[in-house]
Amino acid sequence: MRRESGEVVLIDLDDSGIGSRHLDLGWAFIMQFVDFNQETGEMRYRFDLAEAFLHGYYGGAAEISMSAEEYDLLWQGAVFMHISYMQCYGPEAVDSLWEILKFGMRQKQQLWKNWTGKSERG
């Protein structure tokens, strides 16, 4: 890209392209919101970030426009994206990445409940 000053800059668009919104939005549910401490192996889910993310895309709990079915698709996208990127971290990271995936998936119902005030299917 060229700035107005004429300076040429490069940007890395990584895997950019037009894709499914369920993959694009779902990616963060595990890859961004699971906080993994490599030294201790401890994990926590960043519900604060996840809820802010959902609020930014869908509005507050009083304005929810996403169905439980769409929420489920977002989580399917999260799982797909996590698995598809696992190879990028090398073979020594596979065990911890599987643990991160399992931990992240266990947070799905709690995040929905936090955000909507009801169970995922309720």
Would you kindly provide a written description of the structure presented here, covering whatever features stand out?
- With 122 residues, the protein is mainly alpha-helical.
- Helix content is 52%, strand content 5%.
- The radius of gyration is 17 Å and the shape is globular.
- The longest helix has 19 residues, at 68-86.
Report, as a whole number of angstroms, the end-to-end distance. Answer: 49 Å
Beta-strand proportion: under 5%
Cα shape = globular
Low-confidence stretches: none
User: Based on DSSP secondary structure assignment, what is the total number of beta strands?
Assistant: 2
Number of domains: 1
H/I helix tally: 5
Biggest sheet, spatial arrangement of strands: 1-2
Rounded Rg = 17 Å
Q: What is the string of helix and strand elements?
A: HEEHHHH
Helix content: 40-55%
Largest sheet: 2 strands, antiparallel
Rounded mean pLDDT is 85
Class based on secondary structure composition and strand pairing: mainly alpha
Features:
122 residues; mainly alpha; two-stranded antiparallel sheet
Short structural summary:
Helices cover 52% and strands 5% of the residues. With 122 residues, it is mostly helical.
